[in-house]
UniProtKB/TrEMBL annotation:
The chain crosses the membrane at residues 31-49, 61-83, 90-107, 119-138, 211-231, 243-263, 284-301, 313-335, 342-360, 366-384. PANTHER family: BLL5714 PROTEIN. This is Low temperature requirement protein LtrA. It comes from Kribbella shirazensis. Residues 1-22 are annotated as: Disordered. Keywords: Membrane, Transmembrane, Transmembrane helix.
Length: 390
């Protein structure tokens, strides 16, 4: 294949990528980019775990939800940009690495958010990431062709919202939370407005592969929690059996979540702008639930070793609620349109039953059983051809 033309400064014109480009897969830069999000997600999940174990449930969930939005939105925006305009030249790489630096700054600011509701470092790291994205969109507008206006609307919209975020540095208390909610809505509105006329192209297989890879990162956090149960068991000999059982059951549930997520062909879920928005935005709940699940497993370890102020029932809910949200989210955005009537009954019903598990004597064991049964049904009932896009 003929290499793309370059300028004297060794830059490649940032033209829209072919949405039907054969063999399009995640690049090594995109995989490198994802690595820093492992750090950010891990830090957020760790602080959620401590907040829940110390019985600061409402405060912990609020802080986690706010911080996770910043992580998810920055990741998602770059992912959709890259599927449309990725050019592997030095400037594209440098701006991507700048965004990675912003993620690391954001991760450093997670603890002050949970401890003192201080968003200063998080906002600074977030704005660094978004300013780099503004530069990417402005560059894309120069050679964007029919997508030029959309690229300019993205750049302008992101810039306006970043000014709003900076105003939170002068706020405190409840005002910050209210402003955060308003500015989140503004962020969510930018793609809707930008794509209204002159849409950017997206590669369905590439974009859904990127979502799948990020899901694997989040599920990896749960596997780490499973390993932590074994590590803890080596130090808590009296609780050796329950901790090892928890580790095994966590592996079963994590594997089931992986199986459920990758059962349907996700690329069929983004065949129109409306469906793409639904797919992209609803993944916030799926991703946040996956991260919270790993925190819940850590809370369960604390419960077994008597290091938490939560009751056993409350500790169980820190695991079952994230599982149910994850399963229901994937069922809604990707699975139900590829499933027959049996699967569309079993999957949401299984998620609901998981929510009831904490009320019985062996909650996590039954949760693992329900998840395994869902997988058995998916094996026996393969995906069907989805209906025409709405």
């Amino acid at each position: 294949m003929t290499p793309p033309p370059t300028t004297r400064s060794r830059l490649v014109p940032m033209q829209p990528r072919d949405p039907h480009e054969p063999g399009r897969t995640a690049s090594t830069l995109e995989l490198f980019f994802d690595l820093v999000f492992v750090v950010a997600v891990s830090v957020a999940a760790a602080h959620l775990h401590h907040a829940l174990s110390e019985k600061h449930v409402a405060e912990g969930l609020l802080s986690y939800g706010m911080v996770f939005f910043a992580i998810w939105w920055a990741w998602m925006n770059f992912t959709w940009f890259a599927t449309s305009f990725a050019t592997d030249d030095w400037l594209y790489r440098v701006l991507t690495i700048v965004q990675m630096g912003g993620v690391l700054v954001l991760a450093a600011g997670v603890e002050p958010v949970f401890a003192d509701r201080d968003f200063t470092v998080v906002v600074i790291g977030y704005v660094v990431m978004r300013v780099a994205m503004i530069a990417q969109w402005l560059r894309a507008s120069r050679s964007g062709g029919v997508s030029r206006q959309a690229a300019l609307r993205y750049a302008g919209g992101i810039a306006v919202v970043q000014v709003l975020w900076l105003t939170t540095l002068a706020m405190s208390g409840t005002v910050v939370v209210v402003a955060w909610c308003v500015f989140v809505l503004a962020e969510l509105a930018v793609p809707v407005v930008a794509e209204r006329r002159g849409q950017t192209p997206w590669h369905p297989h590439h974009i859904t592969e990127r979502y799948g890879l990020f899901t694997l990162i989040l599920l990896g956090e749960s596997l780490l929690a499973s390993a932590n149960a074994i590590f803890e068991a080596l130090h808590e000999h009296e609780d050796l059996g329950p901790l090892i059982a928890l580790s095994v059951l966590t592996l079963v549930v994590t594997a089931a979540l992986w199986w459920i997520y990758f059962w349907p062909p996700h690329h069929t879920a983004i065949t129109s702008m409306a469906r793409s928005i639904r797919y992209g935005y609803m993944h916030y709940f799926v991703f946040a639930a996956a991260g919270a699940f790993s925190a819940g497993v850590e809370v369960q370890i604390d419960s077994i070793t008597h290091h938490t102020e939560l009751s056993e029932v409350a500790a169980s809910y820190t695991v079952t609620i994230p599982i149910a949200i994850f399963v229901l989210g994937i069922w809604w955005i990707a699975l139900r349109e590829n499933a027959d009537r049996v699967v569309n009954v079993v999957v949401p019903l299984g998620a609901v039953l998981v929510l009831l598990d904490p009320l019985i004597p062996v909650p996590f064991a039954l949760t693992a059983l329900f998840m395994a049964l869902i997988v058995v049904v998916l094996v026996l009932r393969p995906p069907v051809q989805p209906a025409a896009a709405d």
